[in-house]
Amino acid sequence: MERREWKREASNGLGKIYNVLWQEESLEKKGILFVLHGMQGHIGKYRYLFEYMAKQGYVVCGMDIQGHGKSANIPGYFGDNSGWESIIHDIHRSLLQIKKWFPNLPIFLFGHSMGSFLARDYAARYGEDLKGLLLSGTAGGSPLLLPVQGYIAVQKKLRGAKDDALKESILLAKYFNRHIRNPKSLSAWICTKEEVSQANTRDPLAVGFTLGAYADLLAALERVNEYAEIKKLKDIPCFLFSGGADPVGEYGKGPASLYAMLKQLGNPKLKLHIFPKLRHEVLNEEVRPILLQEMTAFMEELRQERN
């Protein structure tokens, strides 16, 4: 199996962005799957997904988002100006390169959590280039969003955009743990498997978040949940999956509301799977084999429609 790595100058000039691509060279290629990881994560956490999908005949690729993993030019920081926008540009530039290497293949975009917000934002702009969206642990709007944005804006002004937001991250983790009886750690909300939650804290490539990144993320979350932005996804087939005990998606309400809006808009191909009692990283739960099969079936059906 070929594993290709490269770095490209970040679109905002802040260092370089790490990219990786896997393919099973002996197989005829079915399509391209581009993977976007979550907040404070990195693409290396999805090795199982790269290996599995490559063995199904897909070219699987992704990148460490600016401020993360091997692209942590400034850990947990997107950039001085328009940080989120620069990430969208980084994704686009990476996909343009991959399309040159593998022309005429349908492109599927997978995003988890923050990566799902990036995927939705990217699809709203470049949807004509995509065959389908696969969204894990996505979220809808929240009445808490505006007051939290206001708090972060004040702290950012007082402390600076690059200041470590550890205190805010702890408060967020406690909030996400609020319905877990006697959580064993601040990361308990991530997965019902304690070893998965603990692995996040021990990961040498994990990063903290800055106030600037929180501000960028919250603004993006507000935008992608506007009706006008969701309407831009009405023609893009979409598979949404989440844990029923995932606090990011308000325990299934977020992905379900997005699904309902897309269905009302006449989206041609929609699938929603909420896994009861499972938490945020549903692909790291016991249902992983089932979910990988569902993801493959979703893409295969769309690929067959193309032919």
Notes on the structure:
It contains 10 helices and 8 strands. It is α/β, with parallel strands linked by helices and 307 residues long. The protein has a single domain, classed as Alpha/Beta hydrolase fold, catalytic domain (Rossmann fold, 3-Layer(aba) Sandwich), CATH 3.40.50. It has an 8-stranded mixed beta sheet, sandwiched between helices. Helix 3 (114-126) packs across helix 7 (211-224). The chain is globular.
Write the layout of secondary structure elements.
Elements lengths: L1 E8 L6 E8 L7 E6 L10 H9 L2 E6 L19 H19 L5 E6 L1 H13 L5 E5 L8 H15 L6 H11 L17 H9 L8 H14 L2 H5 L6 E6 L9 H12 L5 E6 L12 H19 L1
Parallel strand pairs: 3-4, 3-5, 5-6, 6-7, 7-8
Antiparallel strand pairs: 1-2, 2-4
Helix pairs in contact: 3-7, 4-7
